[in-house]
Each structure stands twice: as C-alpha cells, then as structure tokens.
Amino acid sequence: MIEPRLPKFEWGQQVVAAIDLYNDGSHPEVPEDHLLVPAGGMGEIVQVGHHAEANLPVYMVDFGLAVVGCLEEEIAPEAAR
Fold this sequence. Notes:
Blueprint: E1 14-17, E2 21-22, E3 35-37, E4 42-51, E5 56-62, E6 67-70, E7 75-77
C-alpha cells in the first residue's frame, strides 16, 4: 500500500491562487466555468483533506466570497506573491 502524500500546506496558512480558479460544477449557485477567484486572490486554508484515488492532498481555501477545493499546484504561499 502506498502511503498518502504529506500535505505541503497546513490549516490556517495564508495562500494565494497561483492560477485563475473556475467553477468545476461544485458550486451549483454559480454557472459552470465561471471565474471564482482570479490568480493572485488571497485566501486561508480552512481544511486539509486527501483524495484517496489520486493519493493527493486537497485543500479547502476560503477566498472570502467562495470556499474552493484546491490542489497544491493551484495555490502558493502568501509570501510567494
């Protein structure tokens, strides 16, 4: 059995969106493919989970107007801005 990959970021950490984040259908009140957070948008990690099939950490990031599930390549530490 492969061990789960350890998360690079932690709960409560300030991050920025590394890319534009669009609705993938997980926000039913917003049209699909609508821009949720532009690249550079500031957020805070409010939960760290794990995608079992992909063996990847998944981060719930509160960007103020929306909480978005993000992968590591979609966010960066605030200092990297």
